[in-house]
Amino acid sequence: MAEAVQTNPLWRENKVKNYLPHMTVPEVESFLTRSDMVIIPIGALEQHSSHLPIGTDFINGKELCKLIAQERDILVAPVLMAGQSPYHMAFAGSITLSAETILKVHMETVESLIRHGFRRFVFMNSHGGNTAITTFLVDQINQKTSAVAVDYSVAIKPFLKVGKKEEATALDRHAGTGETSNSMYLMPDLVQLDKATTPTLTLPEHLTKMLPEVIKEEPTAKLLFLSEGLKAKDTGKKTSTKEMTTTGVWGTLNPNEATTERGAENIKIEVEAFIGFIDKWNELVKA
User: Fold this and answer.
1) Among the listed ranges 150-164, 205-219, 271-285, which one has the minimum average pLDDT value?
2) Average pLDDT for residues 18-22, to the nearest whole number?
3) DSSP string, 97-125
4) How far, CA to CA in Å, does 16 sit from each of 38, 62, 134?
5) Domains of the chain listed by start with CATH number
6) Residue 168 has pLDDT above 90, yes or no
């Protein structure tokens, strides 16, 4: 009797519905009889302190898209892991791509999928540094191809449930409690909460003075703060991550205050909101 062959001991992945990398050609052909909608996450490979993996933005974006695709027929088609992250390059492992590269890869991806019959595209940007690129990409697709593209963050806004929001008391952004909570829900095995430490923030003096209004979400202060903060070292702004925080967390809270419950609620709200958008888009297309 032949001895059973041991398969890859590291394999842990299960086949996921509507996830392009897992699908066969007949499955894509069958999908196209039901829908022509695609969602493409745009993430990053960049430092997320000592408690979250470098792939946090890519993995979280991809996993959120996969959850949405279990509720409605929308193809999940990630094609690029890295994004624009020059301000994190002082931390080992971070990768940054030019805006031109990111744009070109995604334009060619859309052109490929159009050839197969896809016509509606949603870009989910899961990394703040890609925001302007995503906006321009959506516009270029709408201006230059037969497809229609939308930005996920814009699309979900009218469908988001506005709940009671606790007033913020501290800066809590990159790799902070919010992102860590979402990660604890979306990729629990990759979060090392025991390695989280309280960051010490060192900002240029004028940004420090601005901080109380930024925390209160005062629009002008927040706009100016984010326009100057978290920029590459060679800009001379002294706001690259390493210049502001040795831990890589852009905030003052210890990420170990994050909870899975908070992450679950955040993701539930987003999934429900985007389902609302999909249903409305399908309704308008059929009208």
Assistant:
1) 150-164
2) 98
3) --HHHHHHHHHHHHHHHHHHT--EEEEEE
4) 15, 12, 26
5) 20-201+245-286 (3.40.50.10310)
6) no
